[in-house]
Amino acid sequence: MTFNSFWTTLTFLLSSSPYNYSPLTIGLFALIGILGMGFGPPYSRFVIDKFVPLFSVIIGELICLMGIVIGTYTGRQSVAGPAVQAFLLDVGLQTAQIANRSAIYTIAPKARNRINTAFMVCIFAGQLTGTAVGNALYARGGWIRSGSASVGFLGVSLLSCFARGPWETGWVGWRGGWSLRRRDLGPKSGKQEKGNSATDVEMEAGEDKLANKDDGQEATNVSEAVSRESGLAGETNTTRRSSEGQQTGRDGSTT
User: Fold this and answer.
1) Is the pLDDT confidence value at 214 over 70?
2) Residue 104 burial (CB < 10 Å; 0-12/13-18/19+)?
3) Highest mean pLDDT range out of 123-137, 162-176, 197-211?
4) In which band, very low, low, confident or very high, does the pLDDT at 60 lie, cut at 50, 70 and 90?
5) d(C-alpha 95, C-alpha 49), whole Å
6) What would the pLDDT profile of 85-100 be if each residue is shown by its tens digit?
7) Rounded CA separation 87/14 (Å)
8) How many whole angstroms separate alpha carbon 191 and alpha carbon 72?
9) Are 134 and 5 contacting, i.e. CB atoms less than 8 angstroms apart?
């Protein structure tokens, strides 16, 4: 919501007094976001990959909040305020989005396409809402009023983040611990390498049963093959003895 609200109302701010910028100059402000894009890969490697997604989401929203406060309450006096807001908003939003995606993809790994579709629908709805609210508030109270609404939106978002801990299985609470480090990192030893959960045990038992079944089937096939070969060999010997007996009888008759 705050992203679209900012970029929509920024056009109104820069095209009016005291700036009176041309459309080309206003469009160049979008290049500031390129600097924020370069922040994503190193942050993902050193922070998102090592800590729970909630930590990065909170960090990203705090960065966005700092940028919006600076841009909202200094934007009428200096163009540096909106420039700083554009940079921090892109950095914070990218940080939160990457962390959110890493979180939602763990919900159901086999249904990532459906989860991503639902996620993008929610983002699109938020963008439409932010654009509509930002335009309406700017028309009524100007730049500061629309920016103050964005501050309120981020405040509500941060409260919702703090209401649920990183290991909470329900909707609200901090059960499961306060640790922000991911628990699936680091070497595992002993029984942990083989898996000590009920699911792992069941999977291993199923694999053993499948292996035993394959071994039994293979032994049966071998036995059948040996039996067939033995039968063919017996038939061959019988036929050979019968032929020899007939030949001996003919020889005796001739004599």
Assistant:
1) no
2) middle
3) 123-137
4) very high
5) 12
6) 999 999 999 999 989 9
7) 16
8) 56
9) yes
Q: Estimate to the nearest angstrom the gap between the alpha carbon of 174 and the chain centroid.
A: 23
The encoded tokens of residue 240 equal 């050979």
CA atoms within 13 A on the CB side of 35: 12
Q: Which candidate, 156, 139, 127, places its Cα nearest to that of 6?
A: 127
- Start-end of H helices in the chain: 2-15, 23-27, 32-37, 40-43, 53-74, 80-104, 112-162, 191-194, 198-254
Chain length of the chain: 255
The pair of structure tokens assigned to 159 is 């409260």
**Token pair of 251 as six digits:** 């020889």
Tell me the one-letter amino acid at 172.
Answer: V
| Structure confidence at residue 183 (pLDDT) | 75
pTM for the full predicted model: 0.70
